[in-house]
Design goal:
mainly alpha, 0% strand
Length: 111
């Protein structure tokens, strides 16, 4: 289960600074002003990914759902806002963490 925690936190470590970078880099430009909400949404999904990573030890199924939502929602949000970041590196980390947390929750429940 520690692997799911690490993957969730690593994803957040990549996603949150890149969402902040995207907002500060282009959020004030005229072409991006109408889409800056997607940047803020990507930041929120990054925080959700971090919280889900921390939650993986206590509630692995809920954490798995949170990491999945963070991966899909954050990937879509940052793609709609500003693609020139490394935010999308966090998506496979969260998806793998979600899968591991979900699978290990079934193993630990059957003991």
């Amino acid at each position: 289960m520690i692997v799911a925690v690490v993957l969730g936190l690593l994803g957040a470590l990549v996603a949150i600074p890149n969402a902040v970078f995207a907002i500060t880099e282009v959020g004030h430009l005229p072409g991006y002003g109408t889409r800056v909400g997607f940047g803020w949404a990507a930041l929120g999904f990054g925080i959700l990914g971090a919280a889900s990573g921390v939650l993986a030890l206590a509630r692995p199924r809920l954490a798995s759902l949170g990491m999945f939502i963070a991966a899909v929602g954050g990937g879509v949000a940052i793609s709609l806002f500003y693609i020139n970041t490394f935010y999308l590196v966090a998506v496979p980390l969260w998806l793998l963490g979600a899968l591991i947390a979900l699978l290990l929750s079934f193993v630990s429940c059957s003991d």
